[in-house]
Amino acid sequence: MRGLILWLVLAAGLSFGGSLLFVLDVSGSMKGRIGERTKLDIAKEVLIDVQKDLPDDLRVGLMAYGHYGKKDCSAIDLLVPLGTNNRKEISERISALEAKEGSTPIAKTLQKAGEILKKEKGRKTIVLVTDGVETCGGDPVKVAKDLRNTVSDIKVHVVGFGVGGKEETDLIKISKAGGGSYYAAKDAKQLAQSLKNIKREEVGRVIFSDDFEGGSLKKDWEVVNPNPDNMIVEEGYLQVVTETFKKDSFTSPVNLLLLKRDLPKQYEVIMRVVHVAPSDPYLGAGIVLYKDDDNQIILFVSGNWLPWAPRKGVRFQKKEKGKWGTPVDFKSITKSERLVITLKLQRIKRKFIAWFRVDEVGKGKTYVNVNRWYKVGEIPQLRANYRPGIFVFKNSDEDPDALMQIDWVEVREIR
């Protein structure tokens, strides 16, 4: 549901068969340095590396703006047309770019990108890499929104390179209006990670998805410690009332859902949850990678149990041989009662990486930007014999009951 259905076309195989257009900012601000290198030199190196690994059947193209050397708002060019046998040409054209004194016509660029992609079949993706906001009087948020309304199956992702404050907020608005994701990057490593996450989001094979649109759970789920009175599939959500654990903390939750599917070597589990509960009681919901009661990895959103810091946030922790490891720091999000959040837990090589993105927030102080992906942390792990699942909980019988609504869950193979 809510944008998830389009992923189902990928479930049958690894083929992508869509179009992806990279849009690179080559304006004067990209001459700024991070360490001993310019932002553009870093972006060029990372972009060349990322585009080489894209699927062979994905049509890829390259646009640039601000590259004429003058503050010319018409400096927008399709440097490499969309195609499947053009990776070498893309690398060569990226390598030749130089930042001079150009402007930042994001709105016009997105509009031209949309005109190009409108002629394409299948899914269409724009990936904008920029270190600044609109400087030519356009409204890129409106353009991104119009693209979503006029071009079928299109997304606009944004990577903000070395930006913060209001500039970042403005870029986030573009990604949200364009139905895409926003990633922040402050150096070469984060830029590479951001682009790879977008690649995974767009070309990863969907192994399993459930949008809870039916009246019952899919047969792929196993319910551990079932309590039918406190769980129902209704109104497009898996709705679960919080209960305390059967055993000690985080060991055996009631209505624990485990997926009856084998996982590939590299994968990610993504879940969106509507968390409506006070920020101080320890009530939460999240993703679990479950082997048994003594061996688990959990990523969850909850209130903070510390009475002097009532707020909601995300925690990431591993239990091995019956002992819980030190949790990754509690990432504070908001004091609001209502929170719609997407959690993402990745298995990449020999480590697990946790992320979250706030999709909506109610009234109350908020400590993060909406629609931006934040990294929680990493946990190294040599072996990964886990089953993915969903759990909802309250820490003690003294905490009030709360209703958690799981919007959707998806498991993808990472390529």
Can you give me a brief rundown of this structure?
With 415 residues, the chain is an alpha+beta fold.
Commentary on this structure:
- With 415 residues, the protein is of the alpha+beta class.
- It has 2 domains: 188 residues, 3-Layer(aba) Sandwich (Rossmann fold); 207 residues, Jelly Rolls, CATH 2.60.120.200.
- The protein is 18% helix and 40% strand.
- The protein has 6 helices and 24 strands.
- The strands form 4 sheets. Strands 9, 11, 12, 14, 20, 21, 22 and 24 form an 8-stranded antiparallel β-sheet that branches. Strands 10, 13, 15, 16, 17, 18, 19 and 23 form an 8-stranded antiparallel β-sheet that branches.
- The longest helix is centred in the middle third of the chain and has 16 residues.
- The N terminus is likely disordered.
Q: Which SSEs are present, and which pair or pack?
A:
Elements: E1 19-25, E2 33-34, E3 37-38, H1 39-52, E4 59-65, E5 76-83, H2 87-96, H3 106-117, E6 124-130, H4 140-150, E7 154-161, H5 165-177, E8 179-185, H6 188-203, E9 205-210, E10 221-224, E11 231-234, E12 237-241, E13 256-259, E14 267-276, E15 283-292, E16 295-303, E17 312-320, E18 323-324, E19 328-334, E20 338-348, E21 351-361, E22 373-380, E23 387-394, E24 403-413
Parallel strand pairs: 1-4, 1-6, 6-7, 7-8
Antiparallel strand pairs: 2-3, 4-5, 9-24, 10-13, 11-12, 12-24, 13-23, 14-20, 14-24, 15-16, 15-23, 16-17, 17-18, 17-19, 20-21, 21-22
Helix pairs in contact: 1-2, 1-6, 3-4, 4-5
